[in-house]
Design brief:
alpha/beta; Spore Coat Polysaccharide Biosynthesis Protein SpsA, Chain A; 2 domains; nine-stranded mixed beta sheet; 14 helices; 9 strands; about 45% helix
């Protein structure tokens, strides 16, 4: 199977050198590394080209989470497409080999995604989110698993994921015009089509973000918007609130057992902001249009005038 690696970039020079150095040491060598850069203002493009990547430059205003990745997927020559982000660093030299290995023996498998480990500087909120969403046990999911797993059935991340190109083509690649979450929506459509997806826990990258409380609100607002815009898909797989309760309970138990009371207060504040943000996002159509972009982490999406179909 031919392998293509696809990486969207923007002002990523600080992490891309490390990423390419690790990619050079991988036990599986790709046919190509395709970079699509949103007109970076730093040395991103030169770094990528120095390491042999093929770089396509687009105006920043044209970047779209789904549409841009679809464009690069269509151009890719690989049978397997590995999507990464510029700040996701493989944790071992065989990370990509392990990520794509399940495709060999399972023709129904359409997608795999790897484990995300917190960076060394990760705060509690960032580290716990990674531990909660990316456990140390692998699993394979199919459409009927929604009855027991709910919305977790379609959880995934294009920060480190691989797709069989033929099956991704079968569902029309990634949906254009989404605020974000193109990976989750693609996973849902793949499962609805009868394919399976697999979480590969021993294929890992270091990838986390230390969000400020206001950023927690904005990210959750955008999740709420996504779940409203794509209600038909998300309603098929269950409510996000149930998964949220599990997350809060696990975080509180962890902190209280360690008697980390200051961190507990911070975690509670973040949880409240996430909840308010999500609910606001779910009801964004009731909020004055001039206010909405300021509540979002993806303000450029609103400036394009994009609205749900």
């Amino acid at each position: 199977m031919k392998l293509s690696i696809i990486i969207p970039t923007y002002n990523g020079a600080k992490t891309l050198t490390k990423l390419f150095q690790v990619l050079e040491k991988q036990t599986v060598i790709p046919e190509e590394i395709l970079v699509v850069d949103s007109s970076s203002k730093d040395a991103t493009v030169s770094v990528c080209r120095d390491y042999g990547a093929s770089v396509t430059i687009i105006p920043q205003s044209e970047f779209d989470h789904g549409g841009t990745r679809t464009r690069m997927a269509e151009e890719a020559t690989g049978d397997i497409l590995v999507f990464m982000t510029q700040d996701a660093i493989p944790a071992a030299n065989d990370a990509i080999e392990k990520l794509i290995a399940p495709f060999v023996d399972d023709e129904k498998l359409a997608m795999t995604y790897g484990r995300q480990l917190p960076n060394e500087d990760a705060d509690f909120a960032a580290a716990h989110l990674r531990a909660f969403n990316y456990p140390d046990k692998p699993d394979t999911r199919e459409y009927d698993d929604k009855e027991k797993l709910g919305i977790r059935t379609i959880f995934t991340s294009n920060s480190f994921a691989a797709y069989r190109k033929s099956t991704l083509t079968d569902v029309g690649y990634f949906k254009d015009g989404l605020i974000f979450g193109e990976d989750t929506c693609a996973a849902g459509r793949l499962l609805q089509k009868g394919y399976t997806i697999k979480y590969v826990s021993d294929a890992a990258v270091y990838h986390s973000h230390n969000y400020k409380i206001v950023q927690e609100f904005k990210r959750s607002f955008d999740i709420g918007v996504l779940h409203t815009v794509e209600a038909l898909l998300f309603n098929d797989f269950g409510k996000a609130e149930n998964r949220g309760v599990e997350y809060v309970r696990s975080g509180m138990n962890n902190l209280l057992q360690k008697k980390e009371y200051v961190k507990t207060a911070d975690f509670m504040a973040r949880t409240m902001m996430k909840f308010i943000g999500y609910k606001a996002g779910r009801n964004y159509q009731k909020i004055p249009g001039e206010v909405v972009p300021g509540l979002s982490m993806h303000q450029a999406w609103w400036k394009k005038g994009r609205k749900p179909d």
